[in-house]
Amino acid sequence: MAYKKALSDEEIKGMEKAFQSVKSYKDGKIDIADYGIFLTAVHFPHSPEQLVEYQNYLKATNSDGRVSFEQFANIAKVQHDPKEVLKVYAKDFDFDKNGFISPEEFQVGIKTLHLHDPEHFGDNLAIPFAQFLKEADTNNDGKISIQELEAWLEKHMK
Question: What's the pLDDT at 2?
Answer without folding.
Answer: 52
